[in-house]
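pls ignore typos typing on phone
adenosine-5'-diphosphate + seq
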Amino acid sequence: MKATAISFEDFRNIHEARVEFSPGVNVLWGANAQGKSNILEGMYYFARGKSFRGVPDKLLVRTGCDFGTASLTCRGEADVYDTHLSVTFPTRGKKRITRGGAPLSGVKELVGSFRAVLFCPEHLSLVTGSPAERRAFLDIALAQLYPGYVSALSVYTRALAERNALIKQAAEGMSVEDHQWAVYAGQLSRSGAAIVSWRSAYTDRLNDLVGQCFRDMTGGREIPRLSYICACGSDAPPDIAHGGEAAVADRLYAVLTERLPREIGAGTTLYGIHRDDVAIDLNGQSAKLYASQGQRRSLALAMKLAEGAMSRSVGGEEPVYLLDDVFSELDGERREYLLSALGERQVIITSCEAETVFSHIPDVALFAVSGGEVWRKR
Ligand SMILES: Nc1ncnc2c1ncn2[C@@H]1O[C@H](COP(=O)(O)OP(=O)(O)O)[C@@H](O)[C@H]1O
Ligand SMILES: [Mg+2]
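k done
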């Protein structure tokens, strides 16, 4: 899949702009706070159905305006014609989403039409960051590939919030009936087990792909290992590959029932997929504790490339790679590796580095971004 063009009207700091991309390497180049990341934010909205900055839609509308619009034209590998996608954000009321001019009912219908992998500086700390960052990595990737994942995650999130409220009431001495606990244990264990199943299968495939990437990068000297850690209150979590989803659901149900007094004491739900993690090892040792900064960056880079490979293998389309400010964070060797690994794929890089950094890249399309305006330089 390639993005052909994106245009904006009153989106963030952009009054009006249109960018026509090259199918290879594109660089959005300019000083800080000019609108480079805003362009990627607009593009990634079509992949994820929300802003990658985690802000409400109304902030995407240019200050002082009532509406903002982002429109993306893209083309799948087997397609003869472009697909036109568009989102209009009002400051009040419902947004309007269209595909090929026809209205869609919501972002759920939109997600899947355009595939992209976003790589930004925060991702460089995927290895050292909190488990929440690694869970977010999985959630964001899986949500774009499997609509059922989004539903399971929203069932889980709602049940967890309600159960936590109930735990607080119980901790304050209010009586809660057993069947209420049973309802939540049921919801959390069923949706939780489905999520564990998706996440751990994804992690296994990611492990293979990250391993391949590392072999290419280091000539086989360093062997990474990624494994999904299920926090279901056991030293030996159920083996999802052998016990299956039902075993995980049983285990979660049991722990939520048996350890309820401990959870009431703690004032929150202590067990479940909201505490899970991905363990990342390098040559048999925890990468978080032992790997050098360079190795951790290589791991993060390999995980992002693997995310792209997974998107291609499950979604059937090569995603567009969006690199927000990350290129300048990598050293020369990793930059070279990244560009060669991406090969013929489409990549859009934002950078405030000297234009000359990109001058050796063949056929690079260079766009200057300043004050919300964009024009092609080269
Ligand atoms: N809703 C908005 N309306 C107008 N300007 C905005 C809005 N949201 C962000 N901005 C402006 O956009 C600029 C940041 O753009 P950004 O794309 O993050 O910069 P960069 O080029 O460094 O990536 C800031 O000047 C900010 O004030
Ligand atoms: Mg930026």
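The chain has a mean pLDDT of 93. Residues 178-218 form the longest helix (41 residues). more later
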